[in-house]
Amino acid sequence: MLGLTGSPAELARGVIGRSAIIVAFLGVALFVVPAVLGGDWIKTLTAVAIYAVVAAGLVTLYGRVGMISLGQIALLAIGTWTATRISYAADLPFPILLLVTGAITCGVGVLIGLPALRLSGLYLALITLMAAGAVNVVLTTINFPNGGHGFTGRTSTPDLSGLQPVGRPGIAGGDTAYYRYTIVVCALMFLLIAAHFASKPGRAWASIRESEPAALATGVNIVRYKLWAFALASFTTGVAGGLLAAQLGQPTAFGFPTQDSLTLLAAALIGGIYSLWGAVIAGAFSQLAPFLFQAQWGIDPNFLLIIFGVGLLQVLLTAPRGIVVQMPKDIANLGKLGAHLFRKVTGGSRSPE
Amino acid sequence: MIEVEGLTVRFAGVTPIDDVTVVFPGGTCGLIGPNGAGKTTFFNVLSGFVKPATGSIRAYGDDLLKMVDYRRARWGLRRTFQTEMAIEQLSVFDNVAMIHEHSGAGRASRKADVASAIDYVGLEVPPAVKVGGLGARDRRLVEIARAVVGAPKVVLLDEPAAGLPDEETEHLSRVIKGIPEKFGALVILVDHDMSLVQACCTTTAVLDFGKLIATGATADVLRDENVMRAYLGTEDVEVAEDVEVTGDGETSEAVP
Predict the structure, then answer these.
(1) Interface contact B127-A200, CB threshold 8 A
(2) Are B140 and B157 in contact (CB under 8 A)?
(3) What is the Rg, in whole angstroms, of the alpha carbon atoms belonging to chain B?
(4) What pTM does this model have?
(5) 3-state secondary structure A168-207
(6) What residue of A is the nearest CA neighbor of B84?
(7) Looking at chain B, which residue has its C-alpha nearest residue A216?
């Protein structure tokens, strides 16, 4: 655990510093943002939180274990689909609905992850991308979510107009309340992943990423830990899917294009694939940017693909660990430059720093 | 004690280990030989990465070859690699602690055991520092600390001194030499640096083209005619009969 590293004083400072940043971030997200923004902004920021959790799955799989999965959006779709069907079939309390959804998606994710035990690199990326494509085909073919009642309910003439939207939790019916609810659940998902990173599985994953033979030689059961990573990433992505189902009310198959898996990975790489903060940035990139382009500035959001491409190139060339590592450095440099200029302007007199 | 009997490894058309029978009695044992002699392949058999065609390996009475690869670490087998493989993403402490976690040693003693291993190898960096920021010497020491933590029975060191300057090698040799007494493990050291082998190892075995050509007290082995010939690449050595046409070129290159 974290508690074992470094001298106590150093450690205490580090933990307090990090906790302070997290608390401040959540404080702004939970109280400041809803007070300032409303309407479409809140809906978009709800989606940002949800996709940040999906990106956290990428941080787990690629950043920590070194496995490229391009099937995360498909898992999100499965989560959304599962939650939607369950909500038609049974009247579960919302947290239970999320947990069941997470568990089912976890099972599917482990199945998709099975090839990962044999494949790596490009092959794994291709297999997971194809799995994502297959899920998309199935969802479109069965006319997701299909209007019938019950868990498997199908009608030959789906009529979405008579369908009840996926129920939100009683305490969070409105958009703003649901936004807060989502933030809290997503924060819990991040906490779950962070707890894994800081303990035995996190260290085993890092050792697999470094070298599989070396991990084997140190006693890591590679099969078990790879599947564990897939299980964790799928569970959290499934929960995110459940949140998305209730956010949308009536999800459609068109909300999960296969290429979104690619753009999300690009966004995660830009944000910083080795850090959970990078996942937050990735969520913002993938959801907030299209909203700004389309609804706020009236620009075709397809341009984003180009911007992501250029951004990715820039990051890979100049800051391979992503914005989340580069930004503080840049700000520090900017600060130094500012102080330097300030000293120059004030005629060489020492300025207090 | 490790008893190797009739060990043979075959890859398509090549026999990197050819009917080797040898005993590593304990303490620090050297395993030397020219490039391509089969030293790393032997380590890979012990680690479970390579399945031998025939032969048996008994370590402290246990049949090592029957154990699943990742279980061998829990049993007490540790190793380092020619290319250093400490985990960049993790701190020095976590690098060592993760071995302890998979070694089957109790959680209660983890903090103390890890600190003692780090202290033993003489690492002077704070344990919270990420390994990614360390230099070559410190990374090597992290690897050694990883190899000795959590009650090891057998420690395999594959060219730990490669690329280190002489003064660092001296420190390393003291660290390696002390492992058997401090941690109770048998150490097998593979290295091309003969002064390191001489300084650390009481006994040494020599491989050449997959065959054992000498074994015994280190001083005697290093004076052995066959060993000198293997390193210098003379033609009329007994073992060279098996080597055939390609033999001479490679052996003569491999002078350390």
Answers:
(1) no
(2) no
(3) 18
(4) 0.83
(5) CCHHHCCHHHHHHHHHHHHHHHHHHHHHHHCCHHHHHHHH
(6) A214
(7) B70
Chain A residues interacting with chain B (CB cutoff of 8 angstroms)? 4-7, 10-11, 64, 200, 203-204, 206-207, 209-211, 213-214, 216-222, 274
What chain B holds in terms of domains, given with CATH numbers, is: 1-76+154-160+167-256 (3.40.50.300), 85-151 (no CATH)
- What does chain B come to in residues? 256
The ipTM estimated for the assembled molecules is 0.81
| Domain count within chain A | 1
Partner-chain residue, chosen from B94, B99, B110, that has the shortest CB–CB distance to A218: B99
In a domain, A213, yes or no: yes
Three-state DSSP state, B255: coil
Quickly state the pLDDT bin for B116 (edges 50, 70, 90). very high
Side chain identity at residue A312, one-letter code: L
Q: Do A5 and B73 touch (CB under 8 A)?
A: no
User: pLDDT-based confidence at B254, cuts 50/70/90?
Assistant: very low
Distances (CA, A) of B222 to A13, B19, B194, B198, B232: 55, 22, 9, 9, 12
> Residue B86 has what DSSP assignment?
-
pLDDT band at B243 (very low <50, low <70, confident <90, very high): very low
Residue of chain B whose alpha carbon sits nearest to that of A221 = B70
Half-sphere exposure of B208 (CA within 13 A, CB side): 27
Residue B77: partners with Cβ closer than 8 Å, 6 or more residues away? A217, B46, B47, B59, B64, B152, B153, B154, B156
**Maximum average pLDDT range among A100-104, B48-52, B215-219:** A100-104
> Do A218 and B98 count as a contact with CB atoms less than 8 A apart?
yes
The shortest CB-CB distance from B102 to any of A6, A64, A220 is to: A220
What rounded mean pLDDT belongs to chain A? Answer: 84
Q: Measured between CA atoms, how close is B25 to chain A, in angstroms?
A: 23
More confidently predicted of A305 and B149: B149
**Contact criterion met (CB < 8 Å) for A216 and B93:** no
Q: Do the domain assignments include residue A187?
A: yes
